[in-house]
Write a structure and sequence with these properties.
Largest sheet: 7 strands, mixed
Number of domains: 2
Strand order of the largest sheet: 7-6-8-9-10-11-12
Strand content: 15-25%
Number of helices: 13
CATH class of the largest domain: Alpha Beta
CATH topology of the largest domain: Rossmann fold
Order of helices and strands: HEHEHEHEEHEHEHEHHEHEHEHHE
Helix content: 40-55%
Oligomer: single chain
Number of strands: 12
């Protein structure tokens, strides 16, 4: 073989090796689709990324994130999901509201999806079962939607004299009918007259709050929903102004000045999302990873808000709180 031919073969082998190395060292891409915003969810994103790091993946080093934030406008989710799928990420993390998981699943049946979700994904037909999801999706469910009755019970414990309460829900929620039925059963058992108010837009929410200011319920419970969470300051300010005791679906509300909240620890769900994302990047199939459920629930009470409202909370209620914000 001539020297020239040997040189050509050698250079070709080097080029092939370089190309193979480039392929094997390509950073996997995680599409991060959230119904909320970075401003509200930075702490939850950090939890997911810390869990991902435990599996050996660090953003900017050996994994890349493509972010899409709906900023509370759930009408944008379909377009954002379609846009993200077109980027062909290695997996999609669908977080920040049940509609996010639904739109992600509608956009792709092949790209792995890791979700956090407030409703039962089996009832929503996103997975086959909790133990063996099958298909391309898995993740963690917050079962927050099943807690409306518990929140009403806590309202009654907070204010034993109340006879009426309002429940604020999103009219476009995929599980609205079931959620309302559960809440009505719990209210009946507590001797509460429950009125359900529905809002899916800022304009509708303003109308509902104006109506509530006129009808003056004894207390307010806010349902788990990404839109309502994105509007939490509007709701908190209304409750403070009208001096209506309110209980909320997660501690974002109490941290922002809401009176009380009862929910699973959302950090737990996001930790599982990060761990599962890492395992899928290593080759695990989403359909083989069981849906995780929360093990820790927390009652948070904001005593500063209670004092500002002139509300004397029963000592037994305050004593059972996992955290009391002074």
């Amino acid at each position: 073989m001539s020297l020239t031919r040997r040189a050509l073969l050698a250079s070709g082998a080097v080029a092939f090796a370089d190309g193979a190395r480039a392929q094997t060292t390509r950073r996997p891409v995680i599409g991060y689709l959230s119904g909320r915003s970075l401003a509200t969810d930075a702490h939850l994103l950090r939890v997911a990324q810390e869990a991902l790091k435990e599996e050996g993946f660090v953003e900017g080093q050996n994994v890349t994130f493509e972010y899409r934030w709906a900023d509370g406008d759930f009408g944008r989710l379909k377009a954002l999901a379609t846009e993200l799928v077109a980027r062909k990420p290695d997996l999609i993390m669908a977080v920040g509201g049940t509609p996010v998981s639904i739109e992600a699943q509608a956009a792709t049946s092949t790209i792995p999806i890791i979700f956090t979700i407030g409703f039962d994904p089996v009832k929503l037909k996103l997975v086959g079962s909790l133990a063996r999801p099958g298909g391309n999706a898995t993740g963690a469910m917050l079962v927050a939607a099943a807690l409306e009755g518990k929140r009403l019970d806590l309202l009654k414990e907070m204010r034993p004299d109340i006879g009426t309460a309002a429940l604020l829900v999103n009219s476009t929620s995929a599980m609205m009918s079931e959620l309302e039925a559960d809440a009505q059963r719990a209210a009946a058992a507590l001797g509460l007259a429950l009125h359900v108010d529905r809002a899916a837009t800022v304009a509708e929410l303003d109308r509902v709050l104006a109506d509530l200011a006129t009808h003056r319920p004894g207390a307010l419970a806010v349902s788990i929903d990404g839109f309502l969470i994105s509007q939490r300051q509007r709701i908190i300010d209304w409750a403070a102004r009208e001096r209506v005791p309110a209980i909320y679906p997660n501690r974002d509300f109490t941290d922002a000045g809401g009176l009380a909240s009862y929910s699973p620890r959302w950090e737990e769900a996001y930790r599982w999302a990060g761990l599962y994302a890492g395992r899928v990047l290593k080759g695990a199939r989403p359909g083989d990873l069981p849906i995780q459920q929360p093990t820790t629930y927390e009652l948070v009470v904001n005593l500063r808000t209670a004092r500002a409202m002139g509300l004397a909370l029963p000592p037994a209620f305050v004593a059972r709180a996992d955290e009391a914000i002074e």
